Amino acid sequence: MPGYDSWKARSPDDDLGDPSQYEKPDPLQELADWEDGMPYQACIEAAEAAEKKVGMLRRVMSRKRDKERMKEMTDPKYMRPGLPFAVGKTVEELGELNAALGKTLRWGWDSVNPELPKHQRETNLIWVRREIEDVRGALDNLERELTKEFG
């Protein structure tokens, strides 16, 4: 690789002038900057910015997976007509939401169940949202059955 002093332009478009005319950094100023922590601080700030972007990307991807999972509520082949089934299903779904919220209070929104296989793990936030959708579906079904039964 050519050294600093042997630099040549690769094409007429790349001609940046004579490299010997470039302003060379002052070694004493560079040393003072390092002692003040400026490059270190810049690295920390860049790492924090990258971490923030990764976190935002994870949340976006998590929401996409949430929407896909929320479509799965109850397999229609297990649904039964009638008010007693609708009441039972609603109570069951409310219990599952209670369990998800209880675990979330104890372990946090970003925690996952370590006992599940990795491909089945989801954060407590995703779990709670999924259970909320299941409760909504059960309440909609209960409302339909109540309307059929009582008008």
In total, the number of strands is 0
Mean pLDDT: 79
Strand share of the residues? under 5%
What is the rounded Rg? 30 Å
Main β-sheet: number of strands, strand sense, barrel status? none
Order of helices and strands: HHHH
Shape annotation: rod-shaped
Structural class: mainly alpha
How many DSSP helices?
A: 4
Distance between the termini: 85 Å
What does this structure look like?
The chain has two domains: 1-71, no CATH class; 75-151. By secondary structure, it is mainly alpha-helical. The chain is built from four helices and no strands. The chain starts with 26 loop residues before the first helix and ends with a helix. The model is unreliable at 1-9 (pLDDT under 50).
